[in-house]
Amino acid sequence: MKFFCPICNENAKRIFISKHKKSIYECKNKNCGHFFTPPHKENQGIVPRFENIETLSDKSLSEFGERNERLLNLFTNKLDKKDYPINFLDYGAGVAHVSRTFKQVLGAKANIYCLEANPACLNLYEKYGLTQILTLNELNKKIDFVFMIEVIEHIEDPIVAMRQIIPYLNTNGLLFLSTPMGSRIENKTNAYDTPSHLHFFSKKSLNLMLKKSGFSEISYKYYPEMYPISPSKYIKLKITVKKLISKLLFNSKNSITHLVGFTKYENKFDKKPN
Fold it and tell me: How far is Cα of residue 23 from the mean position of the Cα atoms in its chain?
């Protein structure tokens, strides 16, 4: 049975069976090089939640709260909009520890919409001043900033999903995206560790997906704001030294595990592949 790349529609070949018994395919197009596993059941991209969802949210907030505050500073510094409130869309909010942090810091200065398909999260968000939506049609404000943190790899058709965001973006609205990078070798990345991942992007395939969706390509770089700071490891290092070390590590071919960056709508897109 033939499989075709969901990003460029070129032929793909199976390269290995993952630890979760999923067939991993690689696009043969050198200008794409996308990795993916064909979904074999409905809602395969939804992450199962077996723990108490509120306890899990609290645990994640405790672990990532400081990191999330640095992310918020990064995001607000990128925005052209300087007046309040800022309208955020947490696309694929999950346990919403990022949005909870943003709301704690900004309060009434932010309207935060949490888009989440997982029914386990249905009663979580409103407790923290967040607005849950099940579809984009429920948005009643134009969005200034969308963040999709470790989400795009779960979406069956990422091109369609990205195009659907466009009508809801404010003028000069921004989107921040992060995703684990695919590889021909399973243990070179953590992309294959999660059974609900459907896509394992290469640098080229992620930008090709964005271009076909109508968004600008990402200029990949290291963002220290994505990672928690471990005081025991870094307390004696100056911040400039930390950044230098991190950038050197990120530029190593063997150490890049995530694709991260900002994009925006460019008012054009390629025709969707047949």
Answer: 23
Q: Is it true that the peptide bond before 38 is cis, omega within 30 degrees of 0?
A: no
- pLDDT class of 255 with cuts at 50, 70, 90: low
Q: Contact at 8 Å (CB) between 96 and 151?
A: no
Residue 239: band (very low, low, confident or very high) from pLDDT cuts 50, 70, 90? very low
Q: Yes or no: say if 4 and 11 are a contact pair by the CB < 8 Å rule.
A: yes
Q: What is the mean pLDDT of residues 191-195?
A: 96
Tokens of 41: 């059941």
pLDDT score of 237 more than 70? no
The enclosing H or E element of 206 equals helix 203-213
Provide the residue type at 258 as one letter: H
- State the alpha helices, DSSP H only, in 12-135: 53-78, 97-106
